[in-house]
Amino acid sequence: MLSAIMEDYLKAIYYLQDETDERVRTSTFAEHMDVEQPSVTSMVKKLAERDFVHYEPYKGVVLTDTGIPIALEIIRHHRLLERYLTERLEYDWAEVHDEADRLEHHISSQFADRIAEQLGNPAVDPHGDPIPTADLDVSPPQSGETLADQQVGEKVRIERVPDHDPDLLRYLSEHGITPTTVVEIVETTSFGMVTLDPDGTDERVALPEEVARIITTQTLTGASN
Amino acid sequence: MLSAIMEDYLKAIYYLQDETDERVRTSTFAEHMDVEQPSVTSMVKKLAERDFVHYEPYKGVVLTDTGIPIALEIIRHHRLLERYLTERLEYDWAEVHDEADRLEHHISSQFADRIAEQLGNPAVDPHGDPIPTADLDVSPPQSGETLADQQVGEKVRIERVPDHDPDLLRYLSEHGITPTTVVEIVETTSFGMVTLDPDGTDERVALPEEVARIITTQTLTGASN
DNA sequence: CTATAAACTTAGCCCCATCTAATTTCGCTC
DNA sequence: GAGCGAAATTAGATGGGGCTAAGTTTATAG
């Protein structure tokens, strides 16, 4: 059996590996988990001993074939919970993350399967992230285009918004921006500001470019997730 | 903040205190929690330091006014979860206990309140145990009569069945015995066997007296939970 | 090719919750 | 009220996960 903490490390490796596409370094890790570097080193050694990760001292860490399904299972739990909490228990888009972050380690896969069933086996969570299936398939990474890539005048559908910053989520939802909403880019500035017009409204929503860069989009050619 | 384990100890004290109506002894405790006695002693000291229990060495332990609400909160979580799992997630009466036992420590009270709301703030869990309200009131202990107290020929309503033994629960539900069902006592023997006839059926269900003694009943005079 | 800063690991400590073995206290019998 | 067995406690160890401080290793600049 794995502790909740070990599961968290595996999940973190999965995410970080995905982002940087190479071995995850101790420092990246420590920052992400909000622990000191030596804690990471020692945990990583334990995980390596149990064969969940491949660890090369001073070089970083990669999930093994044993580790990947464990990470995916947790991610499945997390995203299903987020969906369930918002859809069935009236949680707010923004407050869902913390609750899911705790519960993901404690629900059985039976529980996960039951809520998945209740929800009609949804493909994505409320932030637009894909939910791994019961046999742990994940949809391929989506378009990869972000709001920051768009030209003025383009209309795109919001695909995915990262779920880590409640303030950002609150701001976005208050201004009508959630996955699946369509927005038009009305302005981009040289000093890194992107201004949007959510579907049909007259309201303008301004975002710093660094935020625009983490919100992925779909081009409007019929695909609808 | 309390650890899940401390919460478990407090919950256990609450239950055991209720049963025996006096200070809970180390040995009782150890058996109930499935740990060795020294573990109990050391944990109890920590709880006493934090003023959750009153502890007198060699004498046993009682919950303080600080400890009681914590135990009740956990019990509320547990019973709401049991209800939610059976009613909304198609869990079986018998398999509900373990899942609830883990989750009770990890759901927020917000979560508890939401599922309570979804369920229409039920008063009892699927085993017939009362669910503490959001402000932690518990209904007074019920009749106190059990199946073992009944005379042959009596008809009573099943009130409460303890939730700890999945095998027993499975057996009972297979034979149509759950809280709120009405049964007639058809036979009691000198060697400790009680035979029942669940409402309207012709089936006979036999129970050893030690089981009959933990199933509480209501007399059939209009009261309905 | 060396010097040095940054990144990483090792060493050694802490707290938590558990255990076994050894000791103390309780409560009862005679 | 002395002795004895059962119950409880203390002592001391273990494993999990974290920290700080003190080395290493790596990578980069010159």
UniProtKB/TrEMBL annotation, chains A, B:
Domain HTH dtxR-type: 1-64
Gene Ontology MF terms: DNA binding; DNA-binding transcription factor activity; protein dimerization activity; transition metal ion binding
Presence of the UniProt keyword Transcription regulation in the record: yes
Comp. bias intervals (Polar residues): 140-149
Superkingdom: Archaea
GO cellular-component term (any): cytoplasm
Chief location of this protein within or outside the cell: cytoplasm
Keyword terms, alphabetized: DNA-binding, Iron, Transcription, Transcription regulation
Claim: DNA-binding is one of the keywords in the record: yes
InterPro entries associated with the record: DtxR_MntR_Metal-Reg (IPR050536), Fe-transptr_FeoA-like (IPR007167), Fe_dep_repressor (IPR001367), Fe_dep_repressor_sf (IPR036421), FeoA_core_dom (IPR038157), HTH_DTXR (IPR022687), Iron_dep_repressor (IPR022689), Transcriptional_repressor_C (IPR008988)
Compartment(s) where it occurs, according to its Swiss-Prot or TrEMBL record: Cytoplasm
Region span, Disordered: 121-152
Assembly description: Homodimer.
Assigned protein family: Belongs to the DtxR/MntR family.
Protein name: Metal-dependent transcriptional regulator
Organism for this UniProt entry: Haloarcula rubra
Lineage: Archaea, Methanobacteriati, Methanobacteriota, Stenosarchaea group, Halobacteria
